[in-house]
Amino acid sequence: MFRYVLSVLLRRQVASLMFFSGLCLFGLISLRDIPLSLLPNIEFPKLTIITSYLNSSPGEIENLISKPISQIVGTIQGVEKVESISKEGYSFVHLSFKNGTDMNFALLEAREKLDLIRDQLPYDSSKSLITKFDPSSSAFMEIVFASKALGDPKKLRQWIEDKIKLYYERIDGIALVQVVGGYEKEVFIEIDPIRLNSYQVQPIELSQLISSNNKNYPAGQLPFGKKDLPVRAIGEFKTSLDLGNLVVRGSDTGRGTRLSDFSSIYERYKDRTGIARYNGNESVILYLYKEPGKNTVALADEVKKVTYNVNDLFKNEVNGNISFDESIFIIESIDGLYINLIIGAILAYVSLLLILKNFQSPTLLLLAIPVTLLPSFLVFNQLGIGFNMMSLGGLALGVGMLFDSSNVVISAIERNLSLGKKLEDSILEGTEEVLGSVVSATSTTIIVFLPIAFIKSTLGIIFREMALAIVITLSFSLFIAVTFIPLLAGLLYRNRKFASNIVSKFSFYNEDKIIKIYHKSLRKVLESPKYYLLLLVSLFAFSLSLLPYIEKEFIPRIDTGEISIHIKMPQGTELEALNDYVKYVESIIQAEPIVKSCLSNIGGDEENLRSNPSAIINSNEADLRVLLIDERNQSTMEIVNDLKSKISGSKEIQIDFKTKENILGDILAEKKEVIEYQILGDDIELMHSSAQALKKKILKLPGIEWVRSDLDEKSIEFNLDFDQLKMAKYGLTNTNVSTFVKIALEGITVSKMDNKDLAIPLRIGMPKANVNSEEKLGNLRIQTPFGDNISLNQFLSFSKSENLTSIHRNGNLRVNALTIGINPMFKNLKREIQSTIDAYPRTDEVKIEATGEKAKLDESLKDVVLSFLLALLLIFMLLAGQFESYRSSLIMLIAIPLIFIGTFPALFLTSKSLNISSFMGFILLMGVVVDNASLFYEYFHLFLNQLNDPKAALFNATQVVIRPIIMNNTTTILGMLPIVFTLSKGSEFQAPLGVVVISGLLTSVILSLFVIPTVVYFQNQKVR
Question: Which residues form the signal peptide (predicted)?
Answer without folding.
Answer: none
